[in-house]
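Technical note accompanying the year-one report. For the benefit of new consortium partners, we illustrate the data format agreed upon in the data management plan: each record pairs a sequence with a structure-token string. No post-processing was applied to the example shown here.
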Amino acid sequence: MLATFLLPFVVLYGLNWLIFHPGIVTAFYLDPPFDTPQPADVIVVLAGKPERAKYAALLAEKRLAPRVVSTLVDPDCLRESGVREPCATRVRNTVDEAVAMRRVLAREKVDRVMVVTSRSHVVRTAAIFTIVFYGTGIDVNVLATPLSANPGAPSVREILSFFPSLGGAALGRFDPELYGWIMQYRFWLPIRGALTPVQSV
């Protein structure tokens, strides 16, 4: 029974180590996972660390996508009103970001999306966006920010929040209203990993 609980943790922690140190996997893959940008219709930069926005801007400069959008602002609303504050999406976590972007980008009939997030966050982000965008016909490519000189160790908190986040993503994909209701009363629920504010990831 202990092995049943520990195995997913060990696998996820090991996968995060490979993402943190892509040199390890180059013996098996020419292009390490989450390190290869692909042309897209839009770049989505997740809220949080400034390195994400900087990397997204660099990708746009390379003309890999014609525009960059932030998960903090609804681009359709911004085009119509021109006022940023009333167009805030008020996302609270990565699941919120994926659900908000699914709604916005499906409305815009986008075909290909690049999602930029921190390297330590990329495994969970890829899982969340895969679930939330399932069935939309939108191709999602999740990218990690470039490897720093001192990558550090993968966060145990990030690994522990993986499965609660997947539950939140599935609920947000198939029953957005129930997901919204649960989020309204989230402080009473023991699923903190799926409810981490975007500012802290």
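Partners are asked to follow this layout when depositing records. The chain has one domain: 2-200.
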